[in-house]
Task: structure prediction
Amino acid sequence: MKLIAKTMAGLEGVLAEELRQLGALQIEPLIRAVAFEGDKRLLYRANLELRTALRVLLPIRSFRVRNEAGLYNMIREVDWPKYMGVDDTLAVDAATHSPYFKHSKYVALKTKDAIVDRFRQEYGRRPNVDIDRPKLRVNVHIYNDECTVALDSSGMSLHKRGYRMETLEAPINEVLAAGLVLLTGWLRDCAFVDPMCGSGTILIEAATYAFNLAPQLNRSFFGFKYWRNYDAGLWEEVLAEAREQALPFAYGLYGYDKDFRAMKIARQNALAAHLEGKVSIDRKAFEKLEPPAENGLIVMNPPYDERIGNDDIGTFYKMIGDRLKQAFSGYEAWVISSNMGALKNVGLRPSQKATLFNGALECKYLKYELYEGSKKEKK
Ligand SMILES: C[S@@+](CC[C@H](N)C(=O)[O-])C[C@H]1O[C@@H](n2cnc3c(N)ncnc32)[C@H](O)[C@@H]1O
Result:
């Protein structure tokens, strides 16, 4: 069957590679999504094991449509009782990039109306809506006049891994954090350091990857579990296989933050992710951080704002560059920030660049290779 994994802008390539490793066929990167072919086992594995997917969709109907009445009629024609019971709950998500449908919320509402009217016609009753954890989540995507109706097998965004107990300001989305780790091309052959780890998201995603732990091992809610064709035995098999895939990791995983509260929250989250004893999280300002290993990979998500305490942001980013040059030769460092002006103050020439979005903020993700000569080169 044809499936679509949704992701964030800039992560299509790493998601396609993840799918290739899962054994998916006919992999085709799209915009913020990757289409692929797979069976039910692959659908379950995709939900459990993909680090950079937000949802996995099963398209059930495609048609051309240019107005609301047409949309309503086409949706109502679908045999919805085949997919859910009248007593099950329902939610509809919609995304539109179309001159014919400007408001995605309205498309979602029309779709929901058409589905419940179909039930009313057959049963004299209608299913209720549950926007958080419905039994069936329907996804409608309209591009120009092409509409695709899909069932959302994840049911709830896959960034909800189940470990984030608490956050601080500006936590990064788990899927983006995993994407940052995978985009580095890390071969899990050196230490990993997040020197400004906040609530620990990037470190936790790096750690589950380092130990080859499926990112959703701690999550129990998936939309497909409420589908009529749910195969509980197959799901148990897929889960057991994923647990067996865990690998040892011989290098350290280190998180630091100058903020005491961040350190506490990151430790709590790591505990909730069952990474006790596998990661080390300490309070330390980057200005004073000494490398915890001879070499390694640094991924850093510093603050983007205009003012950092008493320093301005330019001085703060200059400090980041200076510290990287002075103390971390032998390391490879990746920094994500939406503050392009401040990034220039890092004062190192990036050897690779990617454009990503942290929420609505367009960001650059820059790679710096730190070797002995990098200090001199800048001078
Ligand atoms: C954008 S947040 C990181 C969010 C994190 N990626 C997460 O998912 O929660 C930036 C973090 O940098 C920390 N920070 C700011 N200045 C620092 C410094 N000089 N040394 C270490 N950490 C610092 C802040 O306390 C904050 O937690």
